[in-house]
Amino acid sequence: MEEIYCDNSATTPVYPEVIREMNIYFLKHWGNPSSIYAKGRLAKYVITNARERIAKILNCSPDEIYFTSGGSESDNLFIKGCFKENSAIITSPIEHPAIMNACKQIHTLGALQITLPITKSGIIDIEGVKKLKNLIQKEKPIYASVMLVNNETGMIQPIQELSKLLKSYVPNIIFHTDAVQAVGKMKLDVQELGVDSLSLSGHKFGAPKGIGILYLKRGIKCNPLINGGGQEQGLRSGTENVPYIMGIARALEITYQGFNEKMIEMEEFDYRFRYKILNGIKEAYSNIPENAIRYKAKGIFNIAFQGINAQNLLLYLDNHDICVSAGSACHSDSDTPSHVLKAMGLTDSEALSSLRFSFKEPIPNNDIDYIIKTLKDGIRQQKKYDV
Predict the structure, then answer these.
(1) Distance from C-alpha of 133 to C-alpha of 126, rounded to nearest angstrom
(2) What DSSP element (H or E) covers 43?
(3) pTM summary value
(4) Which domains are present in the chain?
(5) Does 330 qualify as catalytic in the annotation?
(6) 288-316: per-residue pLDDT in tens?
(7) Residues ≥6 apart with Cβ < 8 Å to 261
(8) β-bridge partners, 158
(9) d(Cα 81, Cα 275) in Å, to the nearest integer?
């Protein structure tokens, strides 16, 4: 049987159209964008053109788009580049390790971290944030970073409402969102979201690994992490990766072509997949409460299997050509419980019994049925050996 890939939150295959376009800049137009002769000028034009196309989708100015090596670098560039001595940052307990570990580093340099409360559904608790008003106004944090779509649960955070609230407390606060998992799951308009900065990672939406985007609102002071020739308006030195820059621009365009129709298809698939698993396997239950499902991005499912070791079940599925994750791709080989699920109030055993299934597009019913059958077989085998 052909492999069934259910881990698109970890990475996605590169679109064939993207590969074809990139090949032109590997094989023919491979000039250095900093060179002033024609081959270099063409490469420079390609970068400018890609920046304009991305800016159109994000609804910002092209000079507010910076190219990086991926989401982690974009996150670190914002957190560390905007750091000031004795500053404070607002974040949440469900962030990607790139944000959490960058915050730990600036904490050692004297930064205060204010952590926002979340609900048991894994969503920022706006009413709880309001209770922190006095602390926030006292500390006057210079920036905040809260992800848009959680990579483990798929829960969409109330970024627009949160940004507006925090800016009413501290008018000059700079609001950043890690939107790596949001691409293709919702519209990305930085003006509507009310964000000053945003991170994207190409390999999450059909571009190659090793290319990312940082949107940074014009006028925000951010210091570079990499010094050199002054590329990317001095913020990110290093010879630009022209084929990959073209690739991420094209992948973003493909992702948002026919977006409304894709969302209708994913909504129907989301219901079907969730219903079949939860009703077809007695040990299965969703880590997202039923009344919160409407806040979940389509195509991401965090399912617990009562009394089952998720790592063992994952390996069983792998042996039967099904790829899933036991949490974030960054920690998928770890036997420690997910910090996201723990923050939601799950016990260690509940977190360690959970698998994440994630899809970029619907899969056929017969594939869903095979997944359910294989899950049942894996659970049955695990229970037999546990006796």
Answers:
(1) 11
(2) helix 38-58
(3) 0.95
(4) 4-12+259-386 (3.90.1150.10), 16-255 (3.40.640.10)
(5) yes
(6) 999 999 999 999 999 999 999 999 999 99
(7) none
(8) none
(9) 45
